[in-house]
Amino acid sequence: MSCSVCTAAILAASGCATTENNPQDPFEGFNRAMFAVNEGLDKVAVKPVAQGYDAVTPLPVKVAVGNFFGNIWDTWTALNNLLQGKGGDALSDVGRVLINSTVGIGGVFDVAGEMGLTKHSEEFGQTLGKWGVGDGPYFYWPLIGPRTTRDTFGWMVDTYYDPVWRVDNIPLRNSLVAVRYVDLRASVLPADKVIEEAAFDKYTYIRDAYLQHRRNEIFDGDPPRIPVDY
């Protein structure tokens, strides 16, 4: 989904964005143009569909859909935790997949969470960061949203190995991708008004919050006080 919208939820909670020029954004003119394209696509197509889905879909069904796709992503999270040297978390992720795929009926129910197995969210961009790969310049892409150079490459790897994208039946694959995208967009609809009211410059607000949030993720919530190239 559009990560600008996902980031909005973070912004609403943290209020951490600034309005100063960011040296990590040397291509700001290009990025602002792409941001405008993304905003237009969201306004005329993505958001209306998400609003319709949100209006007609019962809450239990939306929870089940989110759990189902979350269970699929747990497999990739497990591998990335292993690549980052976090064996305990990786083992927990594998346990979540096994329990939720069986007792949880294909991941529809988060039984593992009820049993105390914490859900993690790791992807290849974070793994690269753990390996010492720096951010590189910031970019804003239509539909994909904000990404550093490192995370753009990470996103391509994530997509290539994403079990949903690797479904052989093309109509089924496209349907799963569309449902997941719409469900994710619908899940952050409440953040839209918050960010619109809070942001003097929406582009800058999203960019700075995204970069700060990513740094926090790379360091597992405990970034060093001294700035480093992450």
List the helices and strands and how they pair.
Elements lengths: L2 H12 L13 H29 L2 H25 L3 H16 L8 H4 L9 H7 L7 E4 L3 E4 H13 L8 H18 L1 H10 L3 H17 L12
Antiparallel strand pairs: 1-2
What does this structure look like?
With 230 residues, this protein is mostly helical. The longest helix is centred in the first third of the chain and has 29 residues, at 28-56. Helix 1 crosses helix 10 (202-218), helix 3 runs antiparallel to helix 4 (87-102) and helix 6 (124-130) packs across helix 7. Strands 1-2 form a two-stranded antiparallel sheet. The chain has helices spanning 3-14, 28-56, 59-83, 87-102, 111-114, 124-130, 149-161, 170-187, 189-198, 202-218; strands at residues 138-141, 145-148. It is globular, with a radius of gyration of 18 Å. It starts with a helix and ends in a 12-residue tail after the last helix. The chain contains 10 helices and 2 strands. A hairpin with a 3-residue loop joins strand 1 (138-141) and strand 2.
